[in-house]
Design brief:
- The chain is about 40% helix and about 20% strand.
- The chain is built from nine helices and eleven strands.
- The strands form two sheets. A nine-stranded mixed sheet has the order 3-2-1-4-5-8-9-10-11, sandwiched between helices. Strands 6-7 form a two-stranded antiparallel ribbon.
- GO terms for molecular function: pyridoxal kinase activity.
- Its EC number is 2.7.1.35.
């Protein structure tokens, strides 16, 4: 019988932007609101995120990461999940693999969000060979959460814009699972222009699911981090893969919709904070 007083703990390995809602400034409050202890290992510290904002400061923390994990290990800290996001170099990819091995236990979950590309293009800070490094990291994950651009790079295939067919999406999902992860959640999926959502695949039972919401106009920074953080929050609250993906779709769409209605600057991220009460209701925590 599960101990309902037991609090689950996540190691969140992401960068930290002082302004702009993404990475750790998204992951920590969402996981915490869901009742999960969130432990941050920052990969870099920035004054703002990099999407559409110039002049930001950037401090690389690669040289601190091994000491971070060794100190945690010396304290015998255990994690129910490890959650990696933006990683700025090959060295950081290798350090995160070390982290996975150091803290791997029988029941912990490794979730990799392979942040490196969107809208058909690799982010400008990365060289093309970075995708191969991310592919090797994804092989060690239990679940990965790529968008369709990242999926194409992981599979060494050409990116194709949507709308998509079910046969195409299922081929992508199954090929991604051959890299190693048991579960795939693919974002940016749509079969019709007015919808947008995610597709799931569970290799153990060869099952696929689709979760959609009405498309909201515009492009918004940080929504992938919101989605992955909400997904992990639901999974760690013992919700099934498909239901967790639906929770994440709903929470992300609600955050975008609130921002769209407020007509605030899209570069500054979306208003996920005021959507947390409904998110917690979907998790059945309130």
């Amino acid at each position: 019988m599960e101990n309902k007083d037991y609090q689950k703990r996540v190691a969140a390995i992401h960068d930290l932007s002082g302004f702009g809602k993404c990475s750790l400034t998204v992951a920590l409050p969402i996981l915490s609101a869901a009742g999960i202890e969130a432990c941050a290992m920052p990969t870099a510290i920035l004054s703002t995120h990099t999407g559409g904002i110039s002049g930001y400061t950037y401090r690389d923390l690669t040289s601190d990461m091994r000491a971070f994990m060794q100190h945690w290990k010396s304290l015998d800290i255990q994690f129910d999940a490890t959650y990696s996001g933006f990683l700025g170099s090959f060295e950081q990819l290798d350090l995160v693999k070390e982290f996975f091995e150091l803290f791997r236990s029988k029941n912990n979950l490794i979730l990799v969000d392979p942040v490196m590309a969107d809208n058909g293009e690799l982010y400008r800070i990365f060289q093309p060979e970075f995708a191969a490094g991310m592919r090797s990291l994804c092989k060690k994950a239990d679940i990965i959460v790529p968008n369709l651009t990242e999926a194409a790079l992981l599979l060494e295939e050409s990116y194709h814009p949507g709308p998509y067919t079910q046969a195409y999406i299922e081929k992508i999902l199954k090929n991604l699972s051959k890299l190693g992860p048991e579960k795939i959640v693919l974002t940016g999926v749509y079969f019709e222009e007015e919808e947008l959502g995610a597709a799931t695949y569970d290799k153990r039972n060869d099952s696929t699911g689709y979760l959609f919401t009405k498309r909201i106009p515009g492009s918004y920074h940080g929504t992938g981090d919101i989605f992955a953080s909400a997904l992990l929050s639901a999974l760690l609250n013992n919700i099934s893969l498909n239901e967790s993906a639906q929770v994440a779709v709903n929470f992300t769409a609600d955050s975008i919709r609130r921002t769209y209605n407020a007509k605030t600057d899209h570069r500054f991220g979306v208003n996920f904070e005021q959507c947390i009460p409904d998110f917690l209701k979907e998790l059945k925590l309130i």
